[in-house]
């Protein structure tokens, strides 16, 4: 069997709010095989980031993991204490964020911030840490590493800051890097560079979990894709497969709402409506409210995540074998 | 236009240069820049240094003793043998001013520093931990603030007894609460920022996040609070002395000199005016210097 860096099984996150309990992450299962880039794609508020936070153990009150398990390199990390988790974070699993502008402490030199990360997890002298940091800076292709080492975050451009963050996340050689919208705040040329960097990291043996709403990013780097909607996985397949033959109406809708140069002149479509309020999810398929192909059964029953073809699963009654019947 | 462009270029060069030079060099570089851009801060700095020197060298600088009485020359006007006149006991005002500077500068700086440290640490803990810790610390702070500070200071001084150390403690206990409040509110804001999150992701412990990531970001505010606390401390001490709880006559502190001179305000106004002006100038100097430092030391405030 294939080695898996991350295995998430039936993960459910609950928020107890005034209006009742909501589940922003509802029975999510996903795998990140070793040495691969896996993407989670979905609209704002569909639970992508919440899944990542749950994996990192960074849920804020009142969020709580109520069900399921998270396995990192085969070890169950669902019920670790805060102290055990702290040892894990940075060393075995790291995360980079959307906003490279605000993810660095504005009053500490970037070199020191990266150094702090390595000194937390390994016993090394100041000189070693500095040497290691500079080496890492070169690895993530920060030009003039010596000079940048002494810079404050505001003296660097967005792309450089994101590189610093990646250097910080990667300095202890974690086996998994979670990238939460890593390129959203960057322009396209820098985006391409950062994505290339992520690919290099994968080739260096780190598995990457990318969370994005940008299908372009997913298409470029991911080996396998999960599509999330209202806290559930609605479709999963290899990137090739899902882009060729999207099965779920939601995924199809997502693809249709991407501007394309080839079909010049056609109107850009949107998916009508918004992600439903998690307090008032429909009884059946959570996409039924916005789905053009919805029928009575979709409104009543929740479809299972079923194979539509080998290695391709979708949560819809109207695709695959059942639709054929 | 051209000039503006040139200035921008120079600043850009500054920033480049700064990142290339060492820690110590950088400090002097910033100081030189402050000297170039902010003359008031430089003048203030010189004034403060002179004041400190004068306080230390008081016995050398003066011909009279601090408590030498000369009853023949009571309340003599400034000028002549007594440059700033004499007080009701015929003691030289200039001499007492310099000796008083020792007490007043200490009383201005040390309690301001102590209350800053105490308030900052408690404030950051309250803000970061939240919950019951926050409630306990902030209710104590509320109680402290709800008391008239003078009353509180009197009560503590009565309990502890006189003496300089006790004055320090008292002023610290009176002033920490407002610092704690400000720091707490900044912490609440900062603890949800992404860089704190990023630090947590890297596995940084809570204590380190508080001390290394949150507190340094409060530093500009702390610096301002520090300069604001100095005058408060000097003035509170003067009131305490007046009530017989602080520095005791015949020893001098500026506050005490103002208060004793009050009775002779119409016949010998210099008795109150001279130490009053001294307090005012010192306080102003600390404020200007604080502002100047704030401009150059806070990396975020650097013009880009």
Q: Overview of this structure, please?
A:
The complex is a heterodimer of chains A (325) and B (304). Chain A has 325 residues and is α/β, with parallel strands linked by helices. Chain A has twelve helices and twelve strands. An eight-stranded mixed sheet of chain A has the order 6-7-8-3-9-10-12-11, with helices on both faces. In chain A, strand 4 and strand 5 form a beta hairpin. In chain A, helix 3 crosses helix 4 and helix 3 runs parallel beside helix 6. Chain B has 304 residues and is an all-alpha fold. The radius of gyration of chain B is 23 Å and the shape is flat. Classes of the chains: A alpha/beta (325), B mainly alpha (304). Chains A and B meet through helix 2, strand 6, helix 3 and helix 6 of A and helix 1, helix 9 and helix 10 of B.
Record the SSE blueprint.
The complex is a heterodimer of chains A (325) and B (304).
Chain A: E1 4-17, E2 20-33, E3 37-41, H1 48-56, E4 63-72, E5 75-76, H2 82-88, E6 93-96, H3 110-121, H4 126-139, H5 145-149, H6 158-170, E7 176-180, H7 188-203, E8 207-212, H8 215-221, E9 224-229, E10 232-238, H9 239-244, H10 249-256, H11 296-300, E11 306-309, E12 312-314, H12 320-324
Parallel strand pairs in A: 3-8, 3-9, 6-7, 7-8
Antiparallel strand pairs in A: 1-2, 1-4, 4-5, 9-10, 10-12, 11-12
Chain B: H1 2-20, H2 23-37, H3 39-56, H4 58-61, H5 93-129, H6 131-146, H7 149-160, H8 164-190, H9 194-201, H10 206-242, H11 254-261, H12 270-297
* Main sheet overview of chain B: none
Helix content of chain B: over 70%
What is the distance, rounded to the nearest whole angstrom, between the alpha carbons of the first and last residues of chain A?
34 Å
Q: Average pLDDT value of chain B?
A: 80
Domain count of chain B: 1
Number of strands of chain A: 12
Report helical residue fraction of chain A. Answer: 25-40%
Enumerate the spans of chain A where pLDDT stays under 50 for 5 or more consecutive residues. Answer: none
Number of helices in the DSSP assignment of chain B? 12
Q: Roughly how many Å is the radius of gyration of chain A? A: 21 Å
| Biggest interface between chains | A-B, 35 and 27 residues
Q: What is Rg of chain B?
A: 23 Å
The helix/strand series of chain B, from N terminus to C terminus, equals HHHHHHHHHHHH
How many strands, what sense, and barrel or not for the largest sheet of chain A? 8 strands, mixed
Beta content of chain B: under 5%
Order of strands across the main sheet of chain A = 6-7-8-3-9-10-12-11
Shape of chain B: flat
- Going by CATH, the homologous superfamily of chain B would be MetI-like
CATH class of chain B: Mainly Alpha
């Amino acid at each position: 069997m294939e080695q898996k860096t991350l295995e998430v099984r039936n993960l459910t996150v609950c928020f107890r709010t005034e209006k009742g309990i909501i589940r922003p992450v509802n029975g999510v299962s996903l795998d990140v095989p070793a040495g691969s880039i896996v993407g989670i794609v979905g609209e704002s508020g569909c639970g992508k980031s919440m899944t990542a936070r749950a994996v990192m153990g960074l849920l804020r009150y009142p969020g709580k993991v109520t069900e399921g398990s998270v396995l990192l390199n085969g070890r169950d990390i669902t019920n670790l204490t805060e102290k055990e988790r702290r040892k894990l974070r940075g060393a075995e699993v790291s995360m980079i964020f959307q906003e490279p502008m605000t993810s660095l402490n504005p009053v500490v030199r970037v070199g020191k911030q990266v150094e702090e990360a390595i000194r937390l997890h390994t016993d090394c002298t100041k000189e070693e840490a500095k040497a290691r940091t500079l080496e890492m800076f070169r690895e993530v292709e920060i030009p003039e590493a010596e000079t940048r080492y002494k810079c404050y975050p505001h003296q660097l451009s967005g792309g450089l800051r994101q590189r610093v963050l990646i250097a910080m996340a990667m300095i202890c050689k974690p086996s998994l890097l979670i990238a939460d919208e890593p390129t959203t705040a960057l322009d396209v040329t820098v985006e391409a560079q950062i994505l290339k960097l992520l690919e290099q990291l994968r080739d260096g043996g780190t598995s990457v979990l990318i969370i994005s709403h940008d299908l372009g990013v997913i298409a470029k780097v991911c080996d396998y894709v999960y599509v999330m909607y209202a806290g559930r996985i609605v479709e999963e397949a290899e990137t090739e497969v899902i882009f060729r033959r999207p099965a779920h109406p939601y995924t199809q809708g997502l693809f249709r709402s991407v501007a394309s140069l080839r079909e010049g002149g056609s109107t850009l479509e949107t998916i009508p409506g918004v992600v439903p309020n998690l307090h008032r999810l429909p009884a059946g398929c959570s996409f039924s409210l916005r789905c053009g192909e919805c029928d009575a059964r979709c409104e009543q029953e929740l479809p299972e995540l079923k194979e539509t073809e080998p290695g391709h699963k979708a949560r819809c009654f109207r695709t695959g074998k059942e639709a054929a019947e | 236009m051209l000039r503006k462009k040139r200035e921008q270029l120079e600043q850009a060069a500054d920033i480049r240069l700064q990142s290339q030079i060492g820690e110590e060099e950088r400090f002097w570089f910033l100081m030189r820049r402050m000297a170039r851009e902010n003359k008031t801060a430089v003048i203030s700095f010189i004034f403060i240094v002179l004041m400190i020197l004068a306080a230390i060298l008081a016995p050398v600088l003066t011909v009279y003793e601090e408590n030498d009485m000369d009853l023949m020359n009571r309340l003599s006007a400034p000028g002549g043998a007594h440059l700033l006149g004499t007080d009701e006991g015929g003691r030289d005002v200039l001499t007492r001013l310099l000796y008083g500077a020792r007490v007043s500068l200490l009383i201005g700086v040390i309690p301001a520093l102590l209350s800053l440290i105490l308030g900052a640490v408690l404030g950051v803990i309250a803000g970061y931990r939240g919950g019951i810790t926050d409630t306990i610390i902030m209710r104590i702070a509320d109680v402290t603030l709800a008391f008239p500070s003078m009353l509180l200071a009197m009560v503590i001084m009565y309990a502890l007894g006189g003496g300089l150390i006790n004055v320090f403690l008292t002023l610290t206990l009176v002033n920490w609460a407002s610092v704690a409040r400000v720091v707490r509110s900044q912490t609440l804001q900062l603890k949800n920022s992404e860089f704190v999150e990023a630090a947590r992701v890297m596995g940084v412990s809570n204590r380190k996040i508080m001390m290394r990531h949150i507190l340094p970001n409060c530093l500009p505010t702390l610096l301002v609070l520090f300069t604001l606390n100095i005058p408060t401390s000097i003035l509170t001490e003067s009131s305490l002395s007046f009530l017989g709880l602080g520095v005791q006559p015949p020893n001098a502190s500026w506050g005490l000199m103002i208060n004793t001179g009050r009775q002779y305000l119409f016949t010998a106004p210099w008795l109150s005016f001279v130490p009053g002006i001294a307090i005012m100038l010192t306080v102003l100097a600390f404020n200007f210097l604080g502002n100047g430092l704030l401009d150059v030391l806070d990396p975020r405030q650097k013009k880009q």
